[in-house]
Protein 1
Amino acid sequence: MEWTSYLPPLLQGAWVTVQLTVYSTILGAVLAFAFGIGKLSNNWLIKGVSIGYIEIFRGTSLLVQLFWLYFALPIAGQAIGIDLRLPPVVAGVLALGLNIGAYGAEVVRGAIQAVPKDQYEAGRALNFTPRQAMWRIALPQAVPEMMPTFGNLAVQNLKDTALVSLISLGDLAFRAENIRNFTQDSTTVYTLVLFMYFGMALVLTAFMKIAERSVGRWKTAGR
Amino acid sequence: MLFGIHWDTSSDLAFAASILPILLRGMVITIEATVLGFFIALVLGLVLAVLKAAPTRIVSWPALVVTEFVRDTPLLVQLFFLYYVLPEYGIVLPAFLTGALALGVQYSAYTSEVYRAGLEAVNRGQHEAARALNLTTTRTFTHIVLPQAVPRVIPALGNYLVSIMKDVPVLSVVTVLEMLNVAKIIGDRTFNYMIPLSMVGGLYLILTILASAGVRYLDLKLPKIGIPLK
Amino acid sequence: MSEPIIKFDKVVKRFGSVTVLNELDFSVSPGEKVTIIGPSGSGKSTVLRILMTLESINDGVVWVDGEPLWHEERGGKLQAASEKHMHRMREKLGMVFQQFNLFPHMTVRRNLTEAPIRVLKLSKKEARERADRLLEMVGLQDQADKYPHQLSGGQQQRVGIARACAMRPRIMLFDEPTSALDPELVGEVLNVIRNLAEEHDLTMLLVTHEMQFARQISDRVCFFDRGRICEEGPPSELFSEPKEARTKEFLRAVVDPDSAKGEKQASAEG
């Protein structure tokens, strides 16, 4: 069989992979900021929940989390009479976003803590509220510091999307396995698929570099 | 029944207690795959790092591309590639070994970068001082550069050991009976996924906390007096 | 006049498109103390780094103690030197670095004994005795078991000097040895170098911005500009009545009391 005939189904799968990556990265970014800032909160409840979230999702395996959401959660729902059966897409985006968000939260926390103390002192001297000091002074300086690591996490997330094929979501890895099953032409299929992932990663990296540059102007001159 | 051990579904507690020994058998496989995969990553990463540091571009450039390629493609697909493609070239490995190899290949891209950063962090003045004192290249490497590079490298490598452990469940797709696969099989047969999967989550938490503590302990114990780590 | 111990013969050094040394001719007699001064980027440090074989040359020949440093005579012709040849040549030279470059993972004493044991093949006992004598010379006998980061910058540089001396070189190269130091620590390092200059017949080549010190210890001062020696002579002449316009300009700039360098120098003298 001609290898070009594999392309249409693989491209369809790649499109699913792209969508999964985009949605879960956005979800992950939101969670990262929420819990990263939450971990620095003075409110013990917010701080405790943030630490719990970060530790659980960083401390266990992504595939365990995915299976738990997809296989175990519906059963828990059944027990309390709520339908918690998630469509594979939702389970996938949720698991990927929750997982990458926990790693991102640590990055956010680290970057905020790396903002020099005298910046906060300057903020206090100008009578900013703590919230203003966080949003107006600390975060704009911290974001450029997070960007390189965020770039790595986004690529990590793209690679992790392959795991959703295991809950029968039709992404690139899933289509590859199907074609291999059908044609037994494993070398061609998997070589093709590896290069497609590589290409997507390069594009994603380029996007993250652009984003990095566009927030670079926030960087303080002193660092 | 799995590994010759029966489960007891009379109550949730009895069920959990009866499957714990089965999950622990899976955990042993998880740990074995982690250790073997890490070892392969350490060796392969060193090879890549040396190639990348080669003075000629004919050698260093392909090594850079390979690193980038391996780092940018999913472990799952690499695993399938090795699992299905190697036999076509007459290399038939047990699933466990193929899995450990895939882990090692994927993480060699990361460890090679760790080695490189560690060596580059030893500043040029150190090489120049060694040269001015007429120390040989070998002696400079083993007694001046390495002792300063190793303490910087160990914590990063340790973190990748923990990452490898969390990636082991991927090997379940090629029938390796690691912890998650065992839990999934129990779930498939009893229609109770909640308990085994949650237990695996808990066991993973314990494993990663212990491993991270181990890495931190090792980091504290390392002789790094006077070595600037930043 | 005796045969020069260092001789640069039309030496050219380029970094990319920038020519740092432009057909430099330069020689030093045995036992002579020579100070090199000049604006930054004039190639002062490069002269020392070429002598220590840290930087290669693009053209010309460097002679050290009657032998070419970067070349070997094979079949009557000068060819690029082997590592073995340079290893032998380096035994004649020692260097003190601007950033000290002490080995941070070794104690002060081990910094001083590592090379004598490994390179000169001294016994541990001999190396230790030599190290302790040198530490006494630089006034750090009680710091032998400390690590470099536990010492002040001035102390670290004194260890750097002792470490270079431990190899018993015939030529000592000092590459801006006090430039990385706080002003109040400059004096102690200069004193050690001064004692070294007065008590030994070492050949010394010093790159520095400490003009007063250069005047005190050198037999000859060379003013470098744009990769060549612009003017040279005994310090009394060069500092008091420089002939070249560029020398005058440079000296006026560095002794200007309003500039930062002037302050640094004043406190070092005090």
Protein 2
Amino acid sequence: MNNKFDALKDDDSGDHDQDQGSPKDSEKEKTEDEDKDQNSSKRKMVVPGAGEHPLQYNYTFWYSRRTPGRPASTQSYEQNIKPIGGFASVEQFWRFYSHMIRPGDMTGHSDFHLFKEGIKPMWEDDANKMGGKWIIRLRKGLASRCWENLILAMLGEQFMVGEEICGAVVSVRFQEDIISIWNKTASDQATTARIRDTLRRVLNLPPNTIMEYKTHTDSIKAWVDFHGLVNPSGGR
Amino acid sequence: MEVSRRRILQKHLEPARPLRRCVPADTEPNINAATCAQALRAEEEHETPIGIEQFCKIVNLHKKKEVARISYSRDVLLGLSSCPEAMKKPPFLPEHPIVLMEARDFGPLTHHEMRWNGGN
């Protein structure tokens, strides 16, 4: 359990720098040096360029990959997720997206995460801890198309659930791929129903696709039950 | 003398007391039932010009606060993917196996979609 609270402590310390505009130049350089330690929340705020199309929220792309050959329980999930970059406009989004491989071309146990700026793709993040996610399991070959449709719907504010959406994940696994969308309040049934309906509409899924809602507290419990320890903020 | 002065004071103060409690001192001399009614009517008349138009404006202002979200359809977003600004390499892209040196061409997923449909 200790690790869980350490992670929360990290979050707290990072947030103080985040809320006020751009940091001083000296600070900026320092925080960019520290980037590798998931300190992206300390980075200078991103803003839309002149003439660009602003988004409702700023977002950050993250990437994670489990090192092959090591059991999940020994790897810290938080250490494995790497920020790729943040954006505030449609044009900036396409710049990142066009310079990243498609999920369908990823190998191994890998994930792309696209989360609102300031929210870490972790169950324990303040924005996520009362939340949950819709999960859709896809047979191989569908992930790239579904991921693109999912994130375009999220960036374009097509879910119409106010502030509820936290982010989206695509997970490439051995025999299947999984896409999911995370929201803040798992107990808000009107919201989760609306997200489900929007997903059905925008993803244009094969008719027999199964959709499942899972709360993050259940995910944590399941993880602890399965791995039988200590490190719930560890691998997934 | 003492007696008469007291009388004058009493006569003057008795009717004035209740008025002083609820009305500003400068309007005091004019107060009577008729002017009160007039003042009320004037106030009503002053309010009525906030008619339907203005009312709608006010309501819309409130609505905008709640609803005004920047939204884009899939087509609009895809349309912007081919503009030159969208193809530039981001300035701070980490070196990583999943990061490409040059922008890939998105003829929106046609290759994958073909593969998917073919596999059906």
